[in-house]
Amino acid sequence: MAHFVINGGHRLEGSVTIGGAKNAAVAIIPAVILAGESCVVENLPQIEDVRILEQILRHMGADVDFTPDGAMRVDPKGINTNTVTFDMVSRLRASYYLLGAMLGRYGHAEIALPGGCSIGQRPIDQHIKGMRALGADVVIERGVVKAHAKKLVGAEIYLDVVSVGATINIMLAAVGAQGQTIISNAAKEPHVVDVANFLNMMGASVKGAGTDVIRILGGRKLHGCTYAIIPDQIEAGTFMIAAAATHGDVVINNVIPTHLEAISAKLMESGAQVIEGDDGRDFFIRVSSNSRARAVNIKTLPYPGFPTDLQQPMMAYLSTAQGNSFVVENIFEDRFNHVAELQRMGANITLNARTAMIEGVAQLSGAPLFATDLRAGAALIVAALAAEGQSQVHNIGYIDRGYEFFEQKLRALGADIKRVE
Ligand code: UD1
Fold first, then answer.
1. What pLDDT was estimated at residue 118?
2. 375 in contact with ligand 1, CB cutoff 6 A
3. 272 CA to centre of ligand 1 in angstroms
4. pLDDT at 120
5. Which end of the chain is less congested by CB atoms within 10 angstroms, N or C?
6. Integer Cα distance of 211 and 189 in angstroms
7. Which of 243, 382, 410 is nearest to 315 (CA)?
8. What would the pLDDT profile of 126-171 be if each residue is shown by its tens digit?
């Protein structure tokens, strides 16, 4: 199996360009099914999750190709099945978006329950509650969610937990329902807004995305469109943290700074310099640091709070901060798999339920490391880049799911990282 070999201790310097948002891409690609016509999706990240979705759609009968400038053109007209098997979805957590899209378009979907990162229980009860409210019969049999509706009708749906996946999935199904759907206590993440914008570009009526009440007027005739995905907030945040962790100076291009406010605030609190700018073409963020970080406390929260997806890289950074940092993980109960790996590098971390206390040490040392999920993998890379000596990061399939050209981008910034097959 491939792994990364990283010789730590090199400052990251220079500039890096961020790709399209993974979490928007994995929803927007299935959403093309709703259009019933060909759509072109631009600014797609070149990651494994997108390649898996491409294969799933092809397997279902859709026509998928790429324009000369790398955009994906999906024509869903040839889709000839309502069933997506476990073999197809086992490596893709977000395959559940096929459920909302297919139910909205065809009134029927059978999707094997997804695989993906193991960071907690990750139930889908809120997705199912929403689809039932729209009039679908939903059952889970032998690991397959089966949803069927003679007719979907708009409904008022209150989410018991703020869930990105449920918000988007219900939005997709509601576009195919007759009349108005109101989702209350909706997630406000940037990719929720991006999916809503895409649906509106196809002719849907989705209002209020980005607030906690979303109104969808379903049943409109949709059409094909061309749409560019927003930049990836989490990829950008990972590079921001890596820049600070290596006492580097990095300009991160193609970002939306308002999406990154929680990360910028915490990095500045830790003593790093963060400057937002506009070069006339794109917004950028420049992160630099020339001294040891100060300890800071983090609580993960739904957007606009500190994102759970950056909790793990942030803990790698705080492992060498001066003082004690407290990190509270409020979204996923088991998102501390990276801690044992950081401890093997010399980090001093005590876990108590959802709270980690990090007593900063002066330096981490390189070690053989094992990624247990996507963002744990990113955390280990950040730690290895900043550490003294060599690390080998294994299980990098997780990292490939969500970071495009990660080692190439890091190498261009001066990191000593190579992929060994
Ligand atoms: C999405 C992101 C993931 C991010 C997470 C939180 C995608 C593809 N993935 O995951 O990167 O870490 O948001 O920002 O966009 N929950 C329920 N019942 C449900 C659904 C969720 O109890 O039906 C709970 C979850 O267990 C979790 C919380 O709600 O505690 C938030 O999960 P959710 O926002 O749904 O995460 P995902 O959409 O899976």
1. 59
2. no
3. 30
4. 60
5. C
6. 9
7. 382
8. 999 999 999 999 999 888 899 999 999 999 999 999 999 999 999 9
Tell me which long-range contacts 146-152 makes (C-beta under 8 A, separation of at least 24).
146/109, 146/110, 147/99, 147/103, 147/108, 147/109, 147/110, 148/107, 148/108, 148/109, 149/103, 149/107, 149/108, 150/107, 151/107, 151/178, 152/103, 152/104, 152/107, 152/176, 152/177, 152/178, 152/218
Question: How far is 256 from 381, CA to CA, in rounded Å?
Answer: 24
Q: Do 309 and 190 contact (CB within 8 A), yes or no?
A: no
Residue nearest to atom 33 of ligand 1 (CA): 163
**Which numbered atom of ligand 1 lies nearest the CA of 307?**
14
CA 76, CA 106: separation in Å to the nearest integer? 12
How far does the centroid of ligand 1 lie from the alpha carbon of residue 334, in Å?
Answer: 13
pTM over cut 0.90? yes
- Strand ranges across the sheet with 390-394: 368-370, 390-394, 3-7, 416-420
Q: In whole angstroms, what is the distance from residue 90 CA to residue 395 CA?
A: 16
pLDDT digits (tens, 9 = 90+) for 114-125: 655 555 667 899
Cβ–ligand 1 distance for 157 under 6 Å, the answer no
Order of strands, sheet of 213-218, starting from the edge strand that comes earlier in the sequence: 156-158, 179-184, 213-218, 205-207
Query: Is the C-beta atom of 116 inside 6 A of ligand 1?
Result: no
Catalytic one among 74, 103, 113, 117? 117
Q: How is residue 229 annotated by DSSP?
A: P
Residue 225 falls in the annotated catalytic set: no
How many Cβ atoms sit within 10 Å of the Cβ of residue 322? 14
- Mean pLDDT (the chain, rounded): 95
Q: Collapse the DSSP code of 79 into the 3-class scheme (helix H, G, I; strand E, B; otherwise coil) and give the result.
A: coil
Cis, bond preceding 304 (omega within 30 deg of 0):
yes
CA 216 to chain centre: 24
Distance between CA atoms of residues 148 and 140, nearest Å: 12
Separation in Å, CA 239 to CA 75, 206, 243, 260, 378: 35, 33, 6, 12, 10
